[in-house]
Design brief:
It is built from eight helices and ten strands. The protein has helices spanning 14-17, 20-27, 64-78, 96-102, 120-125, 142-153, 201-219, 231-245; strands at 2-6, 32-36, 50-51, 61-62, 83-93, 107-112, 117-118, 129-132, 186-187, 190-191. Strands 2-1-6-5-8 form a five-stranded parallel sheet. Helix 4 links the parallel strand 5 (83-93) and strand 6 (107-112). Helix 7 crosses helix 8. The protein is elongated and about 70 Å long.
Length: 246
């Protein structure tokens, strides 16, 4: 996978791409990236990339020319049909399912805006996806793009050390992940559940499934509305609900 990020502040990404999993994945050539300052593509003699909105109003709006030309330039370099993603508070809320979808792509282009917003022609004629990481407003799209890139890259083959790590993450299965424990088995009187020390993998699997359902029910019950519960799952949930009443 190759990722292009169009931003007025490419220096914001240095720490993210030079640390942890993303750094290792890039060094191992599991993905490549390019930071593009779309100010470099402006035809404005003062290097401006924004202007006042027609009709008046507060703030400045990103003009279409530098963004269109920057996207055209990175497309021509790769000769691919990329997904062009606009980071925007009005966009589709980013989810694990969307991350899994984007992880199948060969080329992603992220557009990170600043100021009041984008010229609507960017939205209508250039992008394939609009994404938001939540119902709040940031000063720009850079932080949102970092979140999406991290979420997507970790799903690429051989990026994570354990191939089972990503499929078992919260939301990957549709449920929240079960609790985890490690050594010591007894820490200041707080003990690891006996079942995890038993060596009985079938019982451990059942325990983890029950704990995952319990955690999802208590913390994010909305996720169960559309989740395909098996008969065993339904029985577990009934037991959890009954235990709350006693």
């Amino acid at each position: 996978m190759h990722i292009d990020i169009l931003t007025l502040f490419p220096e914001m990404f240095s720490g993210v791409f030079q640390s942890s999993i993303l750094k290792k994945a890039n060094e191992r050539e599991k993905f490549s990236y390019n930071l593009v300052n779309f100010r470099d593509y402006t035809e404005n003699k003062h290097m401006k990339v924004d202007d006042y909105p027609y009709g008046g109003g507060a703030g400045m709006v990103l003009t279409p020319q530098p963004v269109f030309d920057a996207v055209t330039a990175v497309k021509n370099k790769k000769q691919t049909k990329p997904r062009v993603i606009l980071m925007c508070p009005q966009g589709e809320t980013f989810t694990q399912k969307k991350a899994e979808e984007l992880a199948e792509e060969e080329h992603l282009i992220f557009i990170c805006g600043h100021y009041e917003g984008y010229d609507e022609r960017i939205r209508e004629h250039l992008v394939t996806d609009e994404l938001s990481i939540g119902d709040y407003v940031l000063t720009g799209g850079e932080l949102g793009a970092m979140v999406v890139v991290d979420s997507v890259v970790r799903l690429l083959p051989e990026v994570l050390g354990n191939k089972e790590s990503a499929p078992e993450d919260s939301f990957s299965t549709g449920l929240l992940e079960h609790p985890h424990y490690t050594r010591p088995a007894d820490f200041r009187g707080m003990k690891v559940p006996d079942i995890l020390l038993s060596g009985d993998h079938a019982k451990i699997r059942d325990w983890r499934r029950e704990e995952s359902l319990k955690r999802t029910y208590k913390r994010r019950g909305d996720l169960l509305n559309d989740y395909p519960l098996s008969k065993a799952d339904q029985e577990i949930l009934e037991k959890i609900k009954k235990s709350e009443k006693t």
